[in-house]
Structure formats: structure tokens, C-alpha cells
Amino acid sequence: MSVRFFRGRALRAACALAGGVLVLTACSNTESSGPEVAKVEGISKVDAIAAQLPEDIKNSGKLIVGVNVPYAPNEFKDPATGEIIGFDVDLMDAIAQVLGVTAEYQESDFEKIIPSIEVGTYNLGMSSFTDNKEREQTADFVTYFNAGSQWARKVGSDVDPENACGKRVAVQRTTVQDTDEIPERSAKCIAEGKPEIVKVAYDEQSAAATALVQGQVDAMSADSPVTAYAIKEANKDAKVIEAAGPIFDSAPYGWPVKKGSPLAPVLQQAMQHLIDNGQYRQIAENWGVEEGVIAKSVINGAQG
């Protein structure tokens, strides 16, 4: 299967696990507090990296970050406080600590973030951007994660992406899993003389996860961080769902900055520092997305 471009091609999981509420609530408990995710301690400024910051950022003491929410668990709002939280937020806060500045998050429509970076409104973007060749024409990207699609199933089941003919698979409507992946897999089943995959599409990712937990479907397919977080939240009291097969169609996430900006190598060095000392992995593990961690951050790492 060809590589997909996530977060920009697919509709994002909006209500899915918003605020870290257990999937069985299907987002009905809007007053619940956010997830109890520990902060990684001991992150400190690295003078040699911070000294390379552009002068305007040094002088302001701020990184202005354009962000679009919600996309749990990467960036979404705590329903109790309205604060923007998530894996991406904790990681960017850590980057800011390494650089001795503060990350200031400004909400934006997703499609307006890169144009706003080009005109200087934001220093960078942080919204699970896939680093692809097309986007690299207008911005530089500092990679920090790998995302793809991943399936989940009930514990004890043997269904997986290569063993799903005749099975019921939940997806969020209009995502790449809905429009491309499951139809392609189903067509392959039919071509092999096997029963089609029954695609069960929901308006909200939370409903797809709930359907799996309740046994209404045999599996679900979503972007890998979303699936990983769904598994983490559903299994808080007992293990009920698990990953079904590896992540596939992976591509890097990156932070976009202005083309040619000296900020890109500074972010890359700060990111590599967090990778090398293990704090990056700790942050990913706190959010249950460690399967997407990378060993090396690069500038413009688009595949293909």
C-alpha cells in the first residue's frame, strides 16, 4: 500500500478521547478533567544550543507556535481548564526548556499555519504535520515522530490487517482509513474470492473505539497515535483491547518553520538532545505513543 499523508489529508479525530475521557463515555462527559499525565522532570537549558536561537526569539523569550486542535492525544484541550495539552505540547514545552524560552501557543485553522509562518506570524507550527515533499516546497520541517495507520482488536482476537476478510472494522468517517485503506483491503478480499470487509464508519473516532470495546466490531483502524492512545485509555482498569499488527504506511511528523530559517537547526539540535538523554521517550511513554518515537531528528525528512 502506498504511503499516506496524515494530518492534512484525513479528517482528524475531533472528539476522540477528548480530554483523556475513557472511550466508553463517547465524549458525553464534557466536564471531565484532562488525563493524568506526569510531566518529565529535570529538563534544563542547554546554553550551547540556546545561543544559536535567532535574535528576535532570544529577545522576546518566546517561541510563537501555531496550533490547531483537537487531535488527541497530540494536541487537544483539557475540558475542565481549556488548556491546550497533549504529547506534542509536552514535547514542545521540553524543547522550549532546552532553549531557555517559553512556548506560546496560538490557535489557528490547520491550513493557515504554514502561510502564517511564511509571513512571520508564528515561529513554527505544531499540529502533527506530515513532512512531505509538497510541503517542503514552502517550509522546512524538523522531524520528531513517525506516524502511520494502526489497527486495534479485542484481547484474545486473532484479527489483524492481513486477516480481516469478512470482519467488521470501525473507522472514523472521511479519514484515510475510511476512504482508502479499508476499501482497498476489502477489494483485495473480494478479488481473492473471500468475503468483503464490512466497514463501519462513525462520525467520531470515540464512537469507533467504543464500538470495539463493546464488541460491536472486530477491529478499528486509525492514525497510529490515536490508536495507541485509545488502547492506553481503554485499558486503565483492565486490558480489553490491544494493537493488531504493526504500524504501516508510516511517515514522519515535523515542525514547520520558514524556509531557510536558522531556527530549523536549533530545533533539530534541541530535539536530538531530548532523544539522546531519554527524556523524549519518557514524554512519548507518558502519552502511550512510544511506538512512533524516532532515533534521529532531521531537517526535511520526507519519504519518497
Automatic annotation (TrEMBL):
UniProt-annotated location(s): Cell envelope
Alphabetic keyword roster: Signal
One annotated Gene Ontology cellular component of this protein: cell envelope
UniProt xrefs under InterPro entries: SBP_3_CS (IPR018313), Solute-binding_3/MltF_N (IPR001638)
Domain Solute-binding protein family 3/N-terminal, chain residue ranges per copy: 62-291
Family recorded in the similarity comment: Belongs to the bacterial solute-binding protein 3 family.
Identification of the protein by name: ABC transporter arginine-binding protein 2
Organism encoding this protein: Nocardia otitidiscaviarum
